[in-house]
């Protein structure tokens, strides 16, 4: 290699001809907040992916709850296995739609880095604890992780990811501001989360537009993976029976298909066939609908995707209805199941106790979290505590509770 990185990348096939005109092109990346010498063997998005995979926050996903807390068994999904499943689906969608697969995968791998221990219960309690201090949002926390809290590199805090990765990460569910700069969606009656506002002062992520197609693919891949693996885990945990799924027409049709083709199939294989078919149907529906959307829009650049005014990578109307019915079923049969709620109540106490104790005695946090506390105001101390707890795994949160309290809940 003679240092002519552009020629090297061309020789390696970067920016291949199969890329759609509206796909993100790594050769045209808007760069990084802190300029760096380009890699001769990796695109910016491949480099981002590698930095995410090697981050501490990514490794901790192994011991963070999806639905079932770690003590309940080794076969249920964790944040890490969920993230891997999302990345696989995101790549499949990106490949079919001729988007940049590496960026789609990168966004899928990063999307849950800001999640607290104990799943959504942990997030809800953290938001409650942080309500006097501008609240907590796991998506904003993911941005905070990759732009500040990961401290590995000699020249900057965070991972210094490319503009396209940060934009897709913060906006994967759609624009956050309207054209007048007012918050949208769940932030409509409040304000954007602290972490997003703070970073927006450093770099403009076009918060009033949709993200590129790769981020949209990662977002819908998250929904597909959630639905499928929560059905799988719920069945294997005995929270509902296979026959209960006949309440949902989408699932009833798949169940009839499986039973018709494989009568008398052993239950474990039967469950797997149902789950894999639900993923396939959803993925194929997204591909068909998205191709039609893109054909109607005829975008000539990724900016056309951003300015389309709606999501291009989407379910058909029929699948939107079916997916909502699946989610309603899961909410009733899994997320609100008495066994799940009982554990959620216990873990909520763990997070609430830890926050209150550190708030009253912040020096109890270990090094380096207890460094420089005397220079911080109350809001900054609360955010420091929030960062510390949000980064914990389920197991470490329990261990910290045992260190500080005499009556840690028994989850098993």
Brief descriptors of the model:
412 residues; mainly alpha; 56% helix
First-residue to last-residue Cα separation? 57 Å
Number of H/I helices: 17
Main β sheet profile? none
Total DSSP E strands: 0
Radius of gyration: 22 Å
Look at the helices and sheets and give the structural class: mainly alpha
Strand content: under 5%
Shape: globular
Mean pLDDT: 92
Helical proportion? 55-70%
Low-confidence segments, given as residue ranges, are: none
Q: How would you spell out the order of helices and strands?
A: HHHHHHHHHHHHHHHHH
Task: Describe the structure in brief.
The protein is an all-alpha fold and 412 residues long. The chain has 17 helices and no strands.
Describe the structure.
The chain has 17 helices and no strands. Helix 4 (79-97) packs across helix 10 (213-236), helix 6 runs parallel beside helix 15 and helix 11 (249-261) packs across helix 12. The termini are far apart. By secondary structure, it is mostly helical. The mean pLDDT is 92.
How does the SSE layout of this entry go?
Blueprint lengths: L4 H8 L31 H10 L2 H5 L18 H19 L3 H10 L8 H12 L7 H12 L13 H9 L22 H7 L12 H24 L12 H13 L5 H31 L4 H5 L10 H19 L2 H23 L17 H13 L3 H11 L8
């Amino acid at each position: 290699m003679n240092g002519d990185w552009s020629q090297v990348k061309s020789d390696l096939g970067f920016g291949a001809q199969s890329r759609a005109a509206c796909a993100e092109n790594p050769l045209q990346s808007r760069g990084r907040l802190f300029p760096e010498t380009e890699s001769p063997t990796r695109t910016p998005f491949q480099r981002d992916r590698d930095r995410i995979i090697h981050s501490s926050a990514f490794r901790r996903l192994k011991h963070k709850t999806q639905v079932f807390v770690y003590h309940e068994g080794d076969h249920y999904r964790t944040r890490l296995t969920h993230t891997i499943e999302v990345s696989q689906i995101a790549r499949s969608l990106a490949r079919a739609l001729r988007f940049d697969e590496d960026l789609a995968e990168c966004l899928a791998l990063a999307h849950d880095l800001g999640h607290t221990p104990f799943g959504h219960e942990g997030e809800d309690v953290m938001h409650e604890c942080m309500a006097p201090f501008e609240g907590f949002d796991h998506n904003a926390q993911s941005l905070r992780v990759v732009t500040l809290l990961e401290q590995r590199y000699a020249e900057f805090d965070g991972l210094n990811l490319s503009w396209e990765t940060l934009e897709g990460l913060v906006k994967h569910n759609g624009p956050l501001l309207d054209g007048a700069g007012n918050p949208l969606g769940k932030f409509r009656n409040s304000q954007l989360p602290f972490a997003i506002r703070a970073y927006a002062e450093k770099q403009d992520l076009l918060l009033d537009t949709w993200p590129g197609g790769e981020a949209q693919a990662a977002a819908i891949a998250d929904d597909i993976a959630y639905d499928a693996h929560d059905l799988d885990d719920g069945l294997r945990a005995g929270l509902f029976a296979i026959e209960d799924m006949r309440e949902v027409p989408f699932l009833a049709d798949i169940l009839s298909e499986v039973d018709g083709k494989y009568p008398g199939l052993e239950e474990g294989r039967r469950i797997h066939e149902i789950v894999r078919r639900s993923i396939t149907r959803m993925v194929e529906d997204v591909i068909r609908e998205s191709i039609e959307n893109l054909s109607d829009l005829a975008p000539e650049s990724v900016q056309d995707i951003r300015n389309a005014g709606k999501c291009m990578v989407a379910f058909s109307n029929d699948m939107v209805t079916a997916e909502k019915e699946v989610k309603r079923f899961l909410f009733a049969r899994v997320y609100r199941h008495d066994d799940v709620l009982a554990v959620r109540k216990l873990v909520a106490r763990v997070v609430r106790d830890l926050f209150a104790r550190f708030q009253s005695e912040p020096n109890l946090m270990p090094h380096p979290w207890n460094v420089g506390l005397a220079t911080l105001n109350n809001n900054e101390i609360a955010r420091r505590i929030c960062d510390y707890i949000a980064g914990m795994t389920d197991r470490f949160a329990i261990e910290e509770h045992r260190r500080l309290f005499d009556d840690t809940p028994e989850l098993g």
